């Protein structure tokens, strides 16, 4: 992905500041440049992944407007028609020019016409106004600091610290949310004075005043009513195919992550068909395979798809990669503590993509959330009085997904029928809170942890639509997309997520529940839509690999001694973590090999190492630039 950066201030902006910001983001593109006036400067580090972008100036300066964009616009033809762009010019117009044309036509409302992945900033010299925007689901990140007489923005946090005036103070609430493995909002970072622009938001900066506005969200009242399964499948396939097609627009060969599951396989086969149609095969596939923990291995499914032809497979032997391999370099790119347990596999897969000569990688990341499993349909059946249907559906789900039917009927039926206040009290009486595991008592009391846990307790959804809307609004989605973005960018690779095309989501939210779940089978509409493209063994599968056993195996096999040393004398987490409880969890993990205990250890470990990275980024700007030259 490309990177953008900028400074607006009362005092003159120094060229050396923009040069430092460019150096901090150099891994994100092969060329960088900036525009500078006395009180404003914008810059771009360009990774050109579309044919039109190869010759596009960046930043783009025209008629008193300056654009810095990290963007791919997917509804190009629709925009060309609205803007009355001559047909002869359309094929050569890059996405940045299209954004600037849209801004000139519709002003700050331009984002409502844009479909794609983007983060951009426009400096309007006449109005002395900075206008910033981020795409609807938050695929492209944008961070900023707003202080007296100073506004700074960048694609990565570290670039903001090229200005020594930007405070580096730790936000302890983010420490708490990390330990709880949850996210309370879409704006905070581990740095109190650094914010992220939320997905689907625009921001204006004028005379030191900063204003945010949300410009898009899913409408939970929409209903899509068609006459048959075939019509629903056709409607989904049309939108999904377009979401994949526009993401194959690339100046390099196209790759797809292929795990063997339904989501990644659906993306891969639709992408392969598009490449076949346009004479651009083969599709490169990137897969992790497991030789030691074979319960995680998906090769039979991967190979079934590859047997259909027009693919070149690239494998990463995941069991040979330690979870802490290159962790210092990983943390340099992440900027903050994280808890993704399989990041070393993602790191290796994007490295394989670069070696294969591709800059564009499609993925099926979290497609089950984007389409929706539909499991709350069981709850909806019970609460609407359709008890025989509820009993039949829970029996079928239990059989298909290897869940005890009694547990399912409690979790999806009886429990959601209990009023929320009683549920909260019931959870509390059972002691279902994590404050007595990793949190130190002093830290828990200081931040009011018990009240926070009650406030953010997850309660069951009572309808399919409620569950789907809640899942898509979950704060973890943009954090996951940002993490994926930063990992790929470390290798000069751009990830694209067809399931998170807003057009796909706008269709899926209106689906009737039985297009998600029926007769114990989830994601009915997706299975029907790609049934003729997928090998039957993939299209009909109900399970997916659980990578937890592999993670536990690798953490013990490769990192046992390093984990022991880090937990024996931690330098960073002492004020926040109950070290005695953590060491007891560590001993229990070594004795039993529990995935749950392994994850608890990992969360603390990533906080220890991540806070050390936060401290490193608190160095003066001159030292940070030297770090960037060493790759962190």
Cα gyration radius (Å)? 25 Å
Residue-averaged pLDDT, rounded? Answer: 93
What's the total number of strands?
A: 19
Largest sheet: 6 strands, antiparallel
Low-confidence stretches: 432-436
- Helix content percent band: 40-55%
CATH class designation of the largest domain: Alpha Beta
- CATH topology heading of the largest domain: Glutamine Phosphoribosylpyrophosphate, subunit 1, domain 1
Termini separation comes to 19 Å
Number of helices: 27
Strand-pairing-aware structural class: alpha+beta
Q: What's the number of domains?
A: 3
Description:
This protein has three domains: 3-217, Glutamine Phosphoribosylpyrophosphate, subunit 1, domain 1; 229-371 and 474-539, 3-Layer(aba) Sandwich (Rossmann fold), CATH 3.40.50.620; 548-616, no CATH class. Residues 432-436 have low confidence and may be disordered. Helix 2 packs across helix 4 (95-106) and helix 24 (548-568) crosses helix 25 (579-592). The longest helix has 22 residues, at 595-616. 44% of the residues lie in helices and 16% in strands. The protein has 27 helices and 19 strands. It is an alpha+beta fold and 632 residues long. The strands form four sheets. A six-stranded antiparallel β-sheet has the order 2-3-1-9-8-10. The protein has a six-stranded antiparallel β-sheet with strand order 4-5-6-7-11-12.
């Amino acid at each position: 992905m490309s990177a953008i950066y900028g400074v607006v201030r009362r005092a003159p902006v120094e060229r050396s500041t923009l040069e430092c910001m460019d150096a901090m983001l150099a891994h994100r593109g092969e060329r960088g440049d900036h525009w500078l006036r006395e009180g404003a400067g914008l810059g771009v580090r360009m990774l050109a992944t579309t044919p039109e972008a190869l010759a596009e100036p960046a930043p783009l300066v025209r008629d008193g407007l300056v654009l810095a964009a990290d963007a791919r616009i997917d509804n190009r033809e629709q925009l060309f028609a609205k803007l009355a762009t001559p047909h002869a010019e359309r094929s050569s117009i890059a996405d940045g020019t299209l954004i600037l044309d849209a801004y000139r036509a519709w002003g700050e409302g331009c984002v409502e016409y844009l479909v794609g992945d983007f983060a951009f900033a426009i400096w309007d010299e006449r109005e002395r106004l900075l206008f910033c925007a981020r795409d609807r689901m938050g695929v492209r990140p944008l961070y900023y600091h707003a202080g007296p007489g100073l506004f700074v923005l960048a694609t990565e946090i570290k670039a903001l610290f090229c200005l020594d005036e930007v405070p580096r103070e730790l936000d302890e609430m983010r420490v708490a949310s990390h330990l709880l493995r949850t996210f309370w909002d879409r704006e905070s970072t581990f740095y109190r004075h650094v914010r992220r622009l939320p997905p689907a938001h625009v921001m204006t900066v004028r005379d030191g005043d900063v204003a945010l506005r949300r410009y898009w969200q899913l409408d939970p009242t929409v209903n899509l009513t068609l006459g048959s399964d075939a019509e629903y499948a056709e409607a989904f396939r049309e939108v999904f195919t377009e979401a994949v097609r526009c993401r194959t627009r690339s100046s390099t060969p196209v790759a797809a992550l292929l795990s063997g599951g339904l989501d990644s396989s659906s993306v891969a086969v639709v992408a392969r068909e598009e490449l076949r149609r346009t004479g651009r095969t083969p599709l490169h596939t990137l897969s992790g395979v497991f030789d030691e923990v074979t319960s995680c291995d998906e090769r039979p499914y991967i190979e079934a798809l590859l047997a259909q032809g027009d693919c070149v497979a690239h494998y990463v032997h995941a069991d040979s990669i330690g979870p802490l391999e290159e962790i210092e370099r990983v943390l340099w790119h992440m900027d903050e503590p994280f808890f993704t347990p399989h990041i070393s596999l993602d790191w290796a897969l994007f490295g394989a993509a670069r070696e294969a000569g591709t800059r564009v990688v499609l993925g099926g990341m979290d497609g089950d959330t984007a389409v929706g499993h539909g499991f709350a349909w069981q709850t909806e059946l019970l609460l609407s009085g359709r008890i025989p249907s509820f009993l039949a559906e829970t029996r079928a789900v239990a059989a298909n997904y290897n869940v005890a039917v009694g547990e399912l009927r409690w979790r999806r039926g009886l429990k959601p029928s209990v009023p929320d206040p009683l549920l909260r009290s019931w959870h509390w009486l059972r002691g279902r809170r994590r404050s007595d595991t990793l949190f130190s008592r002093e830290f828990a009391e200081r931040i009011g942890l018990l009240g926070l846990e009650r406030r953010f307790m997850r309660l069951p959804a009572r309808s399919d639509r409620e569950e789907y809307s809640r899942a898509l609004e979950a704060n973890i989605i943009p954090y996951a997309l940002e993490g994926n973005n930063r990992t790929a960018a470390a290798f000069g690779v751009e990830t694209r997520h067809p399931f998170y095309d807003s057009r796909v989501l706008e269709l899926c939210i209106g689906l009737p529940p039985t297009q998600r779940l029926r007769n114990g089978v989830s994601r009915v509409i997706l299975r029907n839509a790609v049934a003729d493209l997928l090998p039957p063994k993939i299209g009909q599968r109900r399970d997916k690999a659980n990578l937890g056993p592999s993670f536990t195996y690798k953490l013990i096999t490769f990192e046992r001694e390093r984990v022991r040393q880090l937990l024996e004398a931690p330098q960073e987490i002492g004020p926040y973590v109950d070290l005695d409880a953590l060491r007891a969890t560590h001993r229990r993990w070594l004795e039993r090999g529990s995935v749950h205990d392994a994850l608890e250890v990992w969360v603390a470990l990533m906080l220890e190492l991540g806070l050390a990275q936060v401290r490193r980024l608190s160095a003066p700007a001159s030292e940070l630039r030297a770090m960037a030259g060493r790759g962190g």
